Amino acid sequence: MSSIVAIVGRPNVGKSTLFNRLIKRREAIVDAVSGVTRDRHYGKSEWNGREFSVIDTGGYVVGSDDVFEIEIDKQVELAIDEADVIIFVVDVETGVTGMDEDVAKLLRKVNKPVFLAVNKVDNNKRAENAVEFYSLGLGEYFTIASISGSGTGDLLDAVVDALPEHVEEEESDLPRFAVVGRPNAGKSSFINALIGEERYIVTDIAGTTRDAIDTKYNQFGFEFNLVDTAGIRRKSKVKEDLEFYSVMRSVRAIEHCDVVLLVHDATRGFDGQVQNIFWLAERNRKGIVILVNKWDLVEKETNTVRDYERQIRKEIEPFTDVPLIFISALNKQRIFKAIETAVEVYNNRSKKIKTSKLNEVLLPIIENNPPPALKGKYVKIKYIMQLPTPQPQFAFFCNLPQYVKEPYKRFLENKLREEFNFHGVPISVYMRKK
């Protein structure tokens, strides 16, 4: 599994901008208003051949009476506790503040690599002013400008060098299905119903599951490893935020599975917390099955299923080609349908399409629906092949790959889904120079 890097600091120092730069996409909200990072953001980054997860935390404020800021503080402490490496971001414009000193005091107690990043250093004068941050007692610092990217390469070199050695886990030929979701959604109940024994403690209290546990499943012609990834542990030194911690533990498990079974409580909305876990799985290019649990508790009318499904698919646009199974773990309703679907998604994710078949089917479609001309330039796609990767990735070779925009890439993805059935699986489409 990849390592975790947490970005921490007080509000308004540029943590989200640095996060966006590390994951190479604009995902976190960047704003000049204090406290915008209300939800934590999670992303994948790669540097010098090492992949790692990045967490952008909310701004840390000590001693605040604001309930919202108190919750952020809890989550920052949890991120620090779970991370392998910590980047502490400060702002050269404001200099050392009392809040910076509070964060530094917290980090000096942490027995993990901490890198002090002095942000907004975009000229020599500011580089000179950065010297005052030695007073935080964290040793050497890195001067960066997260907006332009200046200095971030040296910072990442050091971060990657400090990551723990990557240990290859014993490979298993069995598919690995991760059961994820927010606390008390019914993950452990689902596994208990499936394996027919009370392997997991099930109570009405969120957060009963302390650690992720693997279970080998071998019944009714199916064989795979099943993982309960609630992973919520009691920690004496950490104030708990169960919602945040459930995502923290899911990060690692999602990265090391083939298919994610996202258990969603039908009596609660498909809210930001559930969506966060969904997009974690999508960004990691895992197969996904959404299990709408506790369906027996929902009052139903003629079109309840249709309307509920339509609402969820709207929330997960544009990746809507995902199976939804309405289950009741308590009543063992459709739980085997859930597993059958997960196996189908696993097979879809493992599918390899012959190059000759790809070209035979898709080239006529592309000829009838070519990419739009741009600046008088016409794109000619001449050849298609599937890349030798664990998940479906396709290269389209053409004369002008730079002129093929996202809407047309989505068109190609949709045609791949229609023609070859990649239900439940994210697809990557790349344009390459022929």
Question: Would you mind describing this structure in some detail?
Answer:
- With 434 residues, the chain is of the alpha/beta class.
- It has helices at 15-23, 67-82, 98-108, 124-129, 152-162, 187-195, 242-255, 272-283, 304-315, 335-350, 355-368, 406-420, and strands at 3-8, 41-47, 50-56, 85-91, 114-119, 141-143, 176-180, 213-219, 222-228, 259-265, 287-293, 324-326, 381-386, 393-398, 428-433.
- It has a six-stranded mixed β-sheet, with helices on both faces. The chain has a six-stranded mixed β-sheet with strand order 8-9-7-10-11-12, sandwiched between helices.
Describe the largest sheet. 6 strands, mixed
The tally of helices reads 12
Query: What helical percentage do the residues reach?
Result: 25-40%
Could you tell me how far the N terminus lies from the C terminus, measured between alpha carbons in angstroms?
A: 35 Å
Count the beta strands.
Answer: 15
What does the radius of gyration come to?
24 Å
Strand content: 15-25%
The SS-based structural class is: alpha/beta
Low-confidence stretches: 26-39, 64-69, 200-212, 231-240
The ordered H/E elements are EHEEHEHEHEHEHEEHEHEHEHHEEHE
The strand order across the widest sheet is 2-3-1-4-5-6
Shape: globular
Arithmetic mean of pLDDT: 80
